[in-house]
UniProtKB/TrEMBL annotation:
It comes from Priapulus caudatus. Residues 193-240 form the Cation-transporting P-type ATPase N-terminal domain. Residues 42-167 form the P5B-type ATPase N-terminal domain. Its EC number is 7.2.2.-. It is a multi-pass membrane protein. The gene is LOC106807977. This is Cation-transporting ATPase.
Length: 1214
C-alpha cells in the first residue's frame, strides 16, 4: 500500500451558514431567548431557550399527584405544555432545552446535550463554557482559554435526526453538516490526507456515528405508545364505564375488536419500520479502508467515518456508506437506487478543476461525488495509485439520510376534510354536554340515586361521541389502499388517498413518464461549407471524417463484464456508426495504458490483430481513434467533450456534443449555417431531440498537457459539424390518459428539463394542448446596462404534419420546403383568449420570479409547458400552483422529480429507486395509467369517508334522541337492544360501507371536500329532524292509542321492557338500516349500491330481522332482546309503526337523493350566502384573465419598472 505522507492533517473550515435572525431585546439590548434557524427555507425553525425551574417542578409534580397521573397523560400528548409548566425561558446560551416551532406551526421539544470535556476535540466547532467552569462570562473568554482542555464544551441538540451546535461567536445554534458549501474544490483535491485515530474519535463525538439507524421500537413500547393515543384512552375509559354499568356484552365485544385492531396496527407499524430499517441497513454494516495522517492504511467500521476522512474505494467496488468526493482515479457507479436510472455513470476526480477558488457544493459537483447507498461497480486508476475519496457528509446528513428523513418526518397535509372532522367532533361533544345536563336534571327530578345519575350522564357522552368514530372513518381509505395495491400502486401515506379525490391539476415529467425512456436515432444533418446538407438516416455510410469520428468517440461509454454500458443516447449514437470499442487491460486497471480506450471501424484491424500478424501493416494502415481524455457531461454547461488522437496523426482533436444553442455559441461564426435557428426550430417543434456536434484541431497539445489542460480553454473556437436528430416517442398509454383527464376537467401541466419546442410538440401530440389552441412563449431577458429586464411574448409555431423516415432521404432543401409547408400560419390579429397556453423555460422562469413577481400567478394560471426546469424550479412551480388553491398531483420517474413529488399533494413515482420512496405513491406500472386509477380510488375513498362520517353522526344523534325521549318516561334500552344497535347494525354496516368499489371512469364533477359545507350540514340536520320526528310521531301515536296501559315504575328505577322503549327501538332499528343505504351513494364516484354484495346482504338480513321483530315477534327473541311483547289485539299498531318506518324512509330518500344534489338547492345556497367571488384564488385570476383579452401582449415586450408599472412596447415578429 502506498504511503501518503504529510506533516499536519488539514483542518476543514466550518460550514458557511445563511444570515440567521437573532432577536434582540429592545429594552436591554441583550439577546433574547428566541431566534430563527434555517430562515427562508422549508426547515425554518423558531427556537426558544428554556432552563429548569425548581419552583415550577415542585408545583408540577404536586399537580400530577393530585390528579392521580392524569396530568402526566396530558403532558405526554402535549410535551410543549410540560416544558412551559416545568421550565422558564432563558437565553439560548444558558438553555438546557429548546422549544422549536416549524413553518407548519408544529411544536417540538429538544434537549441540549453536551460533549464531556475531553482532549482532542477539534477547535473549529468548540469554545469553552467559561461560566460553568468558574472563569467568568462566556462572552469574555478568549482563544487562549482553549489550552485548558478540561473546559472545552460542545453543546448541541438533535431535531429530526439533524444536529444543531452552539456557535459561540454568533451566539446561535447552527446546523452541523459536513465539508460542503465552504470548502474549496482544490482543498478537497490536495489538502486532505486523513486523520489520526485520536483525531477521528474526537470528531466522532462532534458529528456522531456514520449510520442511518431506523429505530424499531419493541412491541411493548409500541403497545404503550398506541394505547396512550387519545382515541384508545377514550375507548378504554368508555369500556371501563360499560363494565361498571354492567353492559358487559358490548364492552367485551369492543375489547375483542379493539385488541384485534390494536394488534394489526402494531404489526403494520413494526413491519414498516423493519422494512425501512432493512432498506437502509446495507450501508451501515460495512467496513472501509481509511488513510491515516501518517499515510498508512487501516480497515475500520464504516460507522466510525467522519467528514474529512480519506477512504480507499476497492477495485471490485462497494456500497458507499457516506457521501464522498473522488480525489484520485475514476469510479463506475450505479445510482439507480437514488435516481432510478439503470445506466451506470462514471465519476471523475475533483483534482483537475478550472477555478481554484470555486467552493464545493454537493448539488453542483455531483459528477465528482459518490453518494451513500449507491453501488460502486468498479474503479479505475492510473498506474498503482489507489482510488481515494474524501468524506464530506455522514449519517443523516447524506443524500440518502435526507431521503430517509423525508419518510420519517413527512410534510404535514393541510386537507380541509380532516380539519372539518375535528370541528364536527367538537360540535358533537358540545351537544353531548348539553344532553348530559338535561339527562342529569331529568334523573335528579325523578329521584335517581347519585351513582345512577353519574352513570347515565357518562352514557350520553359515549353515545354522542362514539369511540368507534375514528376507526370507522378510515374504512374507506383502507379498502381503497388495498385496491390500489392490487393495481400496482403502493401508498406510504394513506390519508393522501382521500386528498387524491380532490385533485384539480396534475403535473407530469416528460422523458420516461409521458414518452419512452430511450431515444432512437432519426438521422444526421451534416454541415459542409457553412450549409446544411441532406439528412443521412444511416450514419455508418458517412465518409471518414470529423463528423463520423465525433459520433464514434464523443461519449462516456465503457465496458463492464464485456458489455457496453452508458447513457442510452450515447449507445444509440455509437451503435449507428457500427464501429467497435476496445479497452485494453483488465477492467480495474485500464488507466495503466497511455491510451485507455480505442474506437475503430469494423473493417480496420485491431492492435491485437496487428501484433499477431505484422504483415497486415503492409497492406492496410489501421484507422483507430484513441480517447485521451474525457470532459464529462455537465448540466450547467449542457455539453461534453473528448480529446482524441488518431493513429498516425501528428495532432490531437477535440470533439464536442451538447445542446445546439450552447455549442453554437462556442463555434466560429463562419462554420455555423445562416439558417441554424430556423432548421433547429423546425426539428424541435416536431418533437425531435436535437444534439449538436463540433470539432477542433489541437495542433500543439501533447499528452501530458492534455491531462492538465483546463476545459474552458479548450472548448472554444470550435467548428460546427452538424446535428444529431433523435426521436423520443410517446408511450402508447399517454394520449388516452391525458384525454381522460381532459374530459374530467383535470388540468394537465408538463414540467420537463427538455427543450421548449420539443416539450411543446409532445404536449400537442399527447393532447395537453388541443389542436385549435395556441401556445405563447414567454421569453424573458435579464436586465442589462441601461435596459431593464424584459419579457418577449411570441407565438410558438404550430406543426400540422410530421416528417416520415422516407422523406428524410430527399435533399435537405426539399425537406425544408416540406417542413415550411407543414406549419400553420398564424394570424397575429386573432383574439386568442382564452384558448391559449403559455410555455416558459427555466431561465425565463427565474427572471420573471425576480423581476416580475406580480405576473407569476398569471403565468402559472395559463402555463402548460415548463421546459428546461431544474429540480428546484419544478418544486417552485408546484408550490405556486398550490398557492393558487389547486390540489396538485405530480407524476415523475427520476430523482430530479423527487422534490416535486414530495411537495405535491399526491406524488406518484414511476421509479422503484430509493429516492422515490419519499413520494406518497409508487407505481409498479411504468406509465401514467396509474393517475386516473388513483384519482378514481381517491374520489371513492373520499365519498365513502363522507358517507361513513355522516352515518356515524346520524347513528349517534338518533340514539341520543332515543335515550333522551326514554329518560322522560323513566325507561331506556336494555343491554341486548344497545348491543344489537351498536355492534350488530352500526359496526357491521360501517365496515361494509367502504367495500363499494370506485366508478369505472372519471367525471368532470368532484366530490365535496368539506364536512361543514352547506350541503353536508343540510343533509345531516335535515335527516336528524326527520328521524327525530319519526320517533316522536310513533311515541305520540302510542300515547294516543286507547287501551294501552303502562305498568308503573317505582321512583328511582329504570324498566327497559316497556311500550315506549320497544316502539322507539323498533323504529330506530330501521332508521340505522335505511340511512346506511342512503349514505352509500353510487355513481359518479362509486359503483352502484347494489354492487356491494356484502353490504346489500347485510342490510337485507338486518331489515328482515327487524321486520320479523316488528310484525311477527318470536317470544324467545323478544325475551332475549328485552322487548315488550305487544299483544296480538294490537296488530294494527304494529302495521302503523311499519307505515311510520316506510314514510320515514321515503322522506329521507327524497331529501338525500333529490334535494341534496339538486341544482335548485345549490342556487338557493348561493343566494343565501351571497357568494360574489370564488373562494379559490385560481378562479379569481381566471376571471380576471378572461376579462383581459389583450393579455398576454403577443408580439410585444414587457419591461420591468422600478415603480412596479409595466411598460409594453411593440416588437412585431417578422
Amino acid at each position: 500500500m502506498p504511503v501518503h505522507k504529510i506533516t499536519n492533517s488539514y483542518v476543514p473550515p466550518v460550514r458557511k451558514e445563511p444570515e440567521y435572525h437573532l432577536l434582540v431585546d429592545p429594552n436591554s439590548g441583550s439577546h433574547c431567548n428566541t431566534t430563527v434557524l434555517n430562515p427562508g427555507t422549508d426547515d425554518e425553525l423558531h427556537c426558544t431557550g428554556y432552563r429548569w425551574n425548581a419552583g415550577k417542578l415542585f408545583l408540577y409534580y404536586t399537580a400530577c399527584f393530585i390528579t392521580l397521573g392524569i396530568l402526566v397523560l396530558v403532558m405526554h400528548w402535549k410535551p410543549d405544555w410540560k416544558l412551559v409548566l416545568t421550565q422558564s425561558p432563558c437565553k439560548l446560551e444558558k438553555a438546557n432545552t429548546v422549544l422549536l416551532k416549524d413553518c407548519y406551526d408544529r411544536l417540538h421539544v429538544s434537549h441540549v446535550r453536551k460533549v464531556p470535556p475531553e482532549e482532542g476535540l477539534p477547535n473549529e466547532y468548540l469554545k469553552p463554557d467559561c461560566r460553568e467552569n468558574g472563569y467568568g462570562s462566556g462572552a469574555e473568554c478568549d482563544d487562549s482559554f482553549l489550552n485548558k482542555q478540561d473546559a472545552r464544551v460542545f453543546r448541541y441538540f438533535v431535531h429530526v435526526n439533524y444536529r444543531y451546535y452552539w456557535n459561540y461567536s454568533k451566539q446561535i445554534f447552527i446546523p452541523l453538516w459536513g465539508l460542503d458549501d465552504e470548502t474549496r474544490c482544490i482543498d478537497l483535491a490536495e489538502n486532505f490526507r486523513g486523520y489520526s485515530a485520536e483525531e477521528q474519535n474526537a470528531r466522532l463525538k462532534i458529528f456522531g456515528e456514520n449510520s442511518i439507524e431506523i429505530e424499531v421500537p419493541s412491541r411493548l413500547r409500541l403497545l404503550i405508545d398506541e394505547v396512550l393515543n387519545p382515541f384508545y384512552i377514550f375507548q378504554l375509559l368508555s369500556t371501563i364505564y360499560w363494565f361498571v354499568d354492567e353492559y358487559t356484552s358490548y364492552a367485551s365485544c369492543i375489547v375483542v375488536i379493539s385488541a384485534i385492531s390494536l394488534a394489526i396496527s402494531l404489526y403494520e407499524t413494526r413491519k414498516q419500520r423493519v422494512t425501512l430499517r432493512d432498506m437502509v441497513s446495507s450501508s451501515n454494516s460495512t467496513e472501509v479502508t481509511v488513510i491515516r495522517d501518517t499515510g498508512e492504511s487501516e480497515t475500520i467500521s464504516a460507522s466510525l467515518l467522519v467528514p474529512g476522512d480519506v477512504i480507499v474505494i476497492p477495485p471490485i467496488g462497494c456500497i458507499m456508506s457516506c457521501d464522498a468526493v473522488l480525489t484520485a482515479g475514476n469510479a463506475i457507479v450505479s445510482e439507480g437506487i437514488l435516481t432510478g436510472e439503470s445506466v451506470p455513470v462514471t465519476k471523475i476526480p475533483i483534482s483537475h478543476h478550472d477555478n481554484e477558488e470555486e467552493v464545493y457544493h454537493i448539488d453542483f459537483h455531483r459528477r465528482f461525488t459518490l453518494f451513500a447507498g449507491t453501488h460502486v461497480i468498479q474503479t479505475r486508476y492510473y498506474e498503482k495509485t489507489d482510488v481515494t475519496a474524501v468524506v464530506v457528509r455522514t449519517g443523516f446528513s447524506t443524500l440518502k439520510g435526507e431521503l430517509v428523513n423525508a419518510i420519517l418526518f413527512p410534510k404535514p397535509m393541510d386537507f380541509k376534510f380532516y380539519q372539518d372532522a375535528f370541528k364536527f367532533v367538537l360540535v358533537m361533544a358540545s351537544i353531548a354536554v348539553c344532553g348530559m345536563v338535561y339527562g342529569i336534571y331529568a334523573q335528579i327530578i325523578d329521584g335517581q340515586e347519585t351513582e345512577e345519575v353519574i352513570l347515565r350522564g357518562i352514557d350520553i357522552i359515549t353515545i354522542v361521541v362514539p369511540p368507534s368514530l375514528p376507526a370507522a372513518m378510515t374504512v374507506g381509505t383502507i379498502y381503497a389502499q388495498n385496491r390500489l395495491k392490487h393495481a400496482g400502486l403502493f401508498c406510504i401515506s394513506p390519508p393522501r388517498i382521500n386528498v387524491s379525490g380532490k385533485l384539480k391539476l396534475f403535473c407530469f415529467d416528460k422523458t420516461g413518464t409521458l414518452t419512452e425512456e430511450g431515444l432512437d436515432l432519426w438521422g444526421v444533418v451534416p454541415v459542409e461549407g457553412d450549409r446544411f446538407q441532406s439528412v443521412v438516416t444511416a450514419p455508418d455510410v458517412l465518409p471518414r471524417g470529423p463528423l463520423l469520428a465525433s459520433m464514434a468517440s464523443c461519449h462516456s461509454l465503457t465496458k463492464i463484464d464485456g458489455e457496453l454500458t452508458g447513457d442510452p443516447m450515447d449507445l444509440k449514437m455509437f451503435a449507428a456508426t457500427k464501429w467497435l470499442i476496445e479497452e485494453p487491460g483488465s477492467d480495474t486497471a485500464q488507466y495503466n495504458t497511455l491510451v485507455p480506450t480505442v474506437v475503430r471501424p469494423p473493417e480496420s484491424p485491431s492492435a491485437a490483430e496487428l501484433a499477431a500478424d505484422p504483415e497486415l501493416m503492409l497492406f492496410q494502415v489501421p484507422y483507430e481513434i484513441g480517447i485521451v481524455r474525457q470532459f464529462h457531461f455537465s448540466s450547467s454547461l449542457q455539453m461534453m467533450s473528448v480529446i482524441t488522437r488518431t493513429l498516425g496523426s501528428r495532432h490531437m482533436d477535440l470533439y464536442a456534443k451538447g445542446a445546439p444553442e450552447k455549442l453554437m455559441s462556442l463555434c466560429l461564426d463562419s462554420s455555423v449555417p445562416d439558417d441554424f435557428h430556423e432548421v433547429l426550430e423546425r426539428f424541435t417543434i416536431q418533437g425531435f431531440r436535437v444534439i449538436a456536434l463540433a470539432h477542433k484541431k489541437l495542433k500543439k497539445l501533447q499528452w501530458h498537457q492534455a491531462q492538465r489542460a483546463k476545459r474552458g480553454e479548450l472548448e472554444r473556437e470550435l467548428s460546427f459539424l452538424g446535428l444529431l436528430v433523435m426521436q423520443n416517442t410517446l408511450k402508447p398509454e399517454t394520449t388516452p390518459v391525458i384525454s381522460e383527464l381532459r374530459k374530467a376537467v383535470i388540468r394537465t401541466v408538463m414540467l420537463t428539463g427538455d427543450n421548449m419546442h420539443t416539450a411543446i410538440s409532445v404536449a400537442r401530440d399527447c393532447g395537453m394542448v388541443e389542436p385549435e389552441h395556441y401556445v405563447i412563449m414567454a421569453v424573458a431577458s435579464p436586465p442589462e446596462e441601461n435596459k431593464p429586464a424584459s419579457i418577449h411574448w411570441e407565438y410558438a409555431i404550430t406543426p400540422t404534419a410530421e416528417l416520415s423516415d422516407s422523406e428524410s432521404s430527399d435533399t435537405f432543401v426539399a425537406e425544408k420546403e416540406k417542413l415550411h409547408n407543414s406549419y400553420q400560419e398564424i394570424v397575429l390579429e386573432q383574439v386568442i383568449a382564452p384558448c391559449y397556453h403559455i410555455a416558459i423555460n427555466g431561465r425565463s422562469w427565474t427572471i420573471i420570479r425576480e423581476h416580475f413577481p406580480e405576473l407569476i400567478p398569471k403565468v402559472v394560471m395559463k402555463g402548460t409547458v415548463f421546459a428546461r426546469m431544474s429540480p428546484e424550479q419544478k418544486v417552485q412551480v408546484v408550490e405556486e400552483l398550490q398557492d393558487l388553491g389547486y390540489i396538485v398531483g405530480m407524476c415523475g420517474d427520476g430523482a430530479n422529480d423527487c422534490g416535486a413529488l414530495k411537495t405535491a399533494h399526491a406524488g406518484i413515482s414511476l421509479s422503484e429507486a430509493e429516492a422515490s420512496v419519499a413520494s406518497p405513491f409508487t407505481s409498479k406500472v411504468p406509465n401514467i395509467t396509474c393517475v386516473p386509477i388513483l384519482m378514481r380510488e381517491g374520489r371513492c375513498a373520499l365519498v365513502t369517508s363522507f358517507g361513513v362520517f355522516k352515518y356515524m353522526a346520524l347513528y349517534s344523534m338518533i340514539q341520543f334522541i332515543s335515550v333522551l325521549i326514554l329518560y322522560a318516561y323513566n325507561t331506556n334500552f336494555g343491554d341486548m337492544e344497545f348491543l344489537y344497535i351498536d355492534l350488530v347494525i352500526t359496526t357491521t354496516v360501517a365496515v361494509f360501507m367502504g367495500y363499494t368499489k370506485s366508478y369505472h371512469k372519471l367525471v368532470a364533477k368532484r366530490p365535496y371536500g368539506s364536512l361543514v359545507g352547506i350541503p353536508t350540514l343540510f343533509s345531516v340536520i335535515s335527516q336528524i329532524v326527520v328521524q327525530a320526528g319519526a320517533q316522536i310521531g310513533v311515541l305520540l301515536y302510542l300515547i294516543s292509542r286507547p287501551g294501552i296501559t303502562r305498568d308503573p315504575v317505582p321512583k328511582g328505577e329504570f324498566d327497559p321492557v316497556t311500550w315506549e322503549s320497544t316502539a322507539i327501538f323498533t323504529v330506530s332499528s330501521f332508521q340505522y338500516i335505511f340511512l346506511a343505504a342512503l349514505f352509500s351513494k353510487g355513481p359518479p364516484f362509486r359503483k352502484p349500491f347494489y354492487t356491494n354484495y356484502l353490504l346489500l346482504a347485510c342490510l337485507l338480513l338486518l331489515g328482515s330481522f327487524s321486520l320479523v321483530v316488528l310484525i311477527w315477534p318470536v317470544e324467545k327473541i323478544s325475551d332475549f332482546m328485552e322487548l315488550y311483547r305487544i299483544p296480538d289485539e294490537f296488530m294494527s299498531f304494529r302495521w302503523m309503526m311499519l307505515c311510520f318506518v316506510v314514510g320515514n324512509f321515503l322522506i329521507s330518500f327524497i331529501i338525500e337523493v333529490f334535494i341534496i344534489d339538486s341544482k335548485l338547492l345549490k342556487k338557493i345556497f348561493r343566494l343565501c350566502c351571497k357568494k360574489r367571488r370564488p373562494k379559490n384564488r385560481y378562479k379569481v385570476i381566471e376571471q380576471e384573465l378572461n376579462a383581459l383579452p389583450d393579455w398576454p401582449p403577443v408580439n410585444e415586450v414587457t419591461y420591468a419598472q422600478s415603480n412596479d408599472q409595466d411598460h409594453t412596447a411593440d416588437d412585431s415578429i417578422s
